[in-house]
């Protein structure tokens, strides 16, 4: 038999499965942990928030206490001032009524001129009164006839102010039933009118001023000697009339 011309291969045998790659076992660490590694926690962060919230809530409580105390003290001051000055409602009265050129055009229209003398009285010893524009309306029973405006004015303490209110109607529309009642009153010789008015007023005394209020007055039973045959000027028959006033 002939010999194999190639010599057998020499070298390291194939390492078995599971053997170390470099032929040596891995180095063993001498470090040993006797406790578990600490875990991260938000405890400290929440603690800071819990410290901030009480400070914030305490500040809000103090702030609310200061605001409430301020309003209570201010209210007490205004109440005491109100008791000291004690504003009284002004007084209104009708001193005179003159009707001229009155006529009933047909069953639904009325014409005429009404000159009304008003007296405004400020009964307060320490309070002045400022009036805005006075809006005054003339009625027969509950039927509106016409209106007029009285300019603003100021009234001093313990003052009486006379005003003239001029009402004019030119073919003013009135309900037929009201015209029928008016003609019936004229046949009796007396016709009663009413005046309703309102204005914004303010009480004041030096630096102290009360907020503006809505004043209303109502003057009723303003009877004038207006007969069917009268064509001239007629006057209030029973003297002056006090008006109802409210704020």
TrEMBL record:
Listed transmembrane segments: 62-85
Pfam families membership: LEA_2 (PF03168)
Membrane topology, record value: Single-pass membrane protein
InterPro entries: LEA_2, NDR1-like
Source superkingdom: Eukaryota
GO cellular component: plasma membrane
An individual GO BP term: defense response to other organism
Domain Late embryogenesis abundant protein LEA-2 subgroup: 122-201
Keywords: Membrane, Transmembrane, Transmembrane helix
Cell compartments where the protein resides: Membrane
Entry keyword Transmembrane: yes
Coiled coil: none
PANTHER family: LATE EMBRYOGENESIS ABUNDANT (LEA) HYDROXYPROLINE-RICH GLYCOPROTEIN FAMILY (PTHR31234)
Name of this protein: Late embryogenesis abundant protein LEA-2 subgroup domain-containing protein
Source taxonomy: Eukaryota, Viridiplantae, Streptophyta, Embryophyta, Tracheophyta
